[in-house]
Amino acid sequence: MSHAVVSPIREPLITGNKTYHQITEDLCAPTEKAPGGAWVIAFMLSLMCMTFGVFCILWTIWFGIGSWNLNRTIGWGWDITNFVWWIGIGHAGTLISAILLLFRQKWRTGVNRAAEAMTIFAVMCAALFPGIHVGRMWVVFFFFPYPNTRGPLWVNFNSPLLWDLFAISTYFTVSLLFWYTGLVPDFATVRDRAKGIRKKIYGFLSFGWTGSAKHWQRWESLSLILAGIATPLVLSVHTIVSFDFATSVIPGWHTTIFPPYFVAGAIFSGFAMVLTLMLITRKVLHLEDYITIEHIESMNKVILATGSIVGVAYLTELFVAWYSQYPYEQFAFFNRAVGPYYWSYWGMMACNVITPQLFWSRKMRRSIFWTFLLSIVVNIGMWFERFVIIATTLARDYLPSSWSYYVPTWVEIGIFIGTIGIFFVLYLLFTRVAPVVAIAEIKSILKTGGNQYVGPNATHHHHHDHGHSDHGVQHAFQKGGDHAGTHDAAIAAAPIAPVVKEAVAEKEVEKVEAKSNDFDAAGNFIGKKDDLTKVEGIGPKVQEHLNNAGIFTWAQLANTEVSKIKSVLEAQGGVYARMVPGTWPEQAKMAHEGRWDELQKWQDELDGGV
Amino acid sequence: MVDFTITGKERTTLFAFMALGVVCLIATFLWGDPSDIEGHHTRFWANILHNSVFFTGIAFTALFVTCAFTTAYAGWFTILKRVWEAFYLFIGVGLILMAIFGVATFLGMHDLYHWNMEGITDPDSPVYDELLAGKKGFLNKNVFLIGTVVVLAVWYFFATKLRSISIAEDKDGSKGDFSFHYNIRWWAALFLPIAAFTSAAMIWQWVMSIDSHWYSTMFAWYATASWFVSCLALTILLLIYMKSRGYMEAITGEHLHDLGKYLFAFSIFWTYLWFSQYMLIWYANVGEETIYFRTRVDQFPVLFYVNLVINFLVPFFVLMRNSTKRKYGTLIFVCVIVLFGHWWDFFQMIRPGVLHTAHEVHAMHEGGHGAHATKDVSGHGHDDHAGHGHDDHAAHGHDDHASHGDGEHGHGHSSFVSGFTLPGFLDLGTMLGFLAFFLYFVMGRMASTSLEPANDPFLEESMHHHT
């Protein structure tokens, strides 16, 4: 629609003066190089953990659920704790993709791809637990509602455990579609750079993407629809997980605040895991220019906010337990705080509520060391939370004669370690086969987030930046009229009138500075236009795009850097994005100087202007 | 036009509605009570409490959302910041309104808050209530008065602080000078956790404690969501009106689209909280909790179901399309319904409990119903007021509290009581009076300074906002 105006107070989100081409180079690189030593070691370690986990799962199936330390009182232990923990972690991806899109947080583009991948892997780890905690793997199909051959035997539709199955499978499907939709144009970018078998594989993965306007249009509608579906799903999944507990009449489980509080806690732990992963990823894959301190600080603010929401919920529960004057409810909380599992309750409080408060300090939020440490602390805390809710509450039920204490066996611990292994194996593979940062989405914010355009060191001055870069220049904003009127007035008021026109697909094009006497007060070109199609490689369509970008004469084209022409073309997407305009300024120079014979001769040697 | 002025016509209209509100209040005071509880002015007090809580809440959420957006670097709302500033300054009025209830409660009024009845926490008293005695650390007149006054004073302090920095930025700031904005951001961030804790406590005191035995951990968040949706609806209505008068030209379909999205999203969020609270209580069917909805479904069915229709179905279906969020007519339609709808929601949160308390109090004063005078808590069964359909729930309760709570809620289920079963004309008139007063106050605040925060670093971004 129009170029966005960015407040001068905003910090850049892409550093290093990146061009579009440089972005492609940087983000495709990890998929094109052999992995380094650190990656190999991490992969081997993860693979070992995963193997041990698989061994423990087989052990469970072979010897039965008795190899765990569950008992009659405590029927849910590490299995469901881990299940809820992983599901919770799986919340950040879709939150970043869908809800932050709604809230217009541009920093999401740096981390959304990896967060979505993390979501999918975390949900896979979570889904494992309901499968194995039934003990008899071969009857797992009982979960699924289908009319079976054993008479009128159906699953219990009144059970929140069944709702969970629907919620999680829906969430997984939509998250996967969302993630893959985002990957399609990026896979095409990798494909266009690849050769041989890699080209074939990425060609298959990118579904024949050509980058035509129609493709982008469909891609954008699909992303919007999926975002619309995903937003309520983020809420629904953990809501239904909380129903698993809250629909019961067990004191400490049955409380109405559970749904929103579980969702807040899930986002909290999800962001912590995203931070843990991104801090390592940006270092190992050299992505510091795309996942900046600004991104880390924003995520730390989300951690602080959600941690505090969770804190409010803990204290609300505690207060209302007293306020209810319901002795069993009161006992449940008394037991959590000072009962035999007091360490897990206070561990939860310390990790989830107290330590995140350190992020009130800007220094802490911007410290990589502290962020990394606290992100792990939060994940430990959120594990404790689920353990507190599940094991502590069950351990002391209504009958003191059946009170019990529970410690896991090596098998249960092994399965948990195994899921961490599975998670990292998948994540590490992902970092090698797909661009970890969404190329197309990062490019879409370059002009509003690149450090050469916004922030204290911006060198490209958009017309609206003058108030910032030159404090003396006041904007004569016209208060009357519609938006377009305001916009034109702003251009007229700027000392030099650069031409900024819009391109298709809402992609902003590179601005080209030109001599001001060729322009009228409203910034329109009034000089004599040249026939740019004399330059080999430029057709009528391309000429139109160049005109739109403010290039009307051979002289202008001759004085335009190749990279700028390239970015004008890339903004068009499709075939334009793959044009190579390397010779165009030189050709234009010849045309401008009237060296037609020389130009003709050169063009005979050129193939399509290349 | 950035300098807002109230026209004579607006002034006359708003004063006419305020007069209507006063007349309705007087009429409610004189003749408003249900025939069986005359002399307590219950409906009169309920009306003032209901509207005070509702409009103070709108002011509070305006402050909260301003702080949240500021902290989150949201730029788009900057152009309408002054409207929310005017909204949140109303907290000062809310302080006075709620202090009236604080003082009245302190002086012993217990027509609204049953827990304040004399002797109710005294084991030797005939009106002793074991549950309320247990809650007296929170539900007592000192905490109510001091808590209300202190919390609202703190909110008002933040409101005036943020407003004064915002105005100072206009006067003493310049483009490129971000110091004022950083200062605002600092105070905004500080307010968020304070608001999160105190608003919950206030909602428990002001609203949840009317049904003095009942409790729900969700309740505070649920009521806050209701406030926020009301705040959004009123904001959209006011902005459209101001545009029609030629102000706020920089507010375009883009901004209204975003506000419409918020209205849509938070109407769904409200429904989500409503559903979670209702479903969990219904599913678990614990006597002490479920009585709250049992009462509403059985005795206030219109109140209960209409609440869902106007606060969920209407905004959900009307605002789902993109284009409807940009059409003034449609937006006005939805906003009027939703604003009224959440006033209705607070009506259903407050009135059934108040009516019940009134009957309780009346019965105790008259000595006509022997239930309380003779009961010991554990042995208290169902008197004839318990109502049909309650018995099975009470019987499932874990302990003696269930039957106690249940027996109490049974009163008055059979008859229609204007101002309690449904809002009557007097209640609607009072609401319009309060609304006119709120708008008059807000317009006065908007007139006192430029509508445009000229030196806010996000102003230009906000003016060029695109969805």
Provide a brief overview of the structure.
With 610 residues, chain A is an all-alpha fold. Chain A contains 25 helices and no strands.
Task: Explain what this protein looks like in three dimensions.
The complex is a heterodimer of chains A (610) and B (467). By secondary structure, chain A is mostly helical. Chain A has 25 helices and no strands. The longest helix of chain A is centred in the N-terminal third of the chain and has 34 residues, at 160-193. Chain B is mainly α and 467 residues long. Chain B has helices at residues 8-31, 42-71, 81-89, 91-106, 130-134, 141-172, 179-206, 219-244, 253-284, 287-299, 301-319, 328-366, 371-374, 391-396, 400-408, 425-447, 459-463. Chain B has one domain (13-399, 425-456). In chain B, helix 2 packs across helix 12 (328-366), helix 2 runs parallel beside helix 16 (425-447) and helix 7 crosses helix 8 (219-244). At the A-B interface, helix 8, helix 9, helix 10 and helix 19 of A face helix 5, helix 7, helix 8, helix 9 and helix 17 of B.
Helix fraction of chain A by DSSP (H/I, runs of at least 4): 55-70%
Q: How many strand units of chain A?
A: 0
Q: How many strands in all of chain B?
A: 0
Tell me the helix content of chain B. 55-70%
Distance between the termini of chain A: 33 Å
Question: What's the SSE pattern of chain B?
Answer: HHHHHHHHHHHHHHHHH
Overall body shape of chain A:
elongated
**End-to-end C-alpha gap of chain B:** 25 Å
Radius of gyration of chain A over all CA atoms, rounded: 29 Å
Number of helices of chain A: 25
Average pLDDT rating of chain B: 85
Structural class label of chain B: mainly alpha
Unreliable runs of chain A: 462-516
SSE order of chain A: HHHHHHHHHHHHHHHHHHHHHHHHH
Helix segment tally of chain B: 17
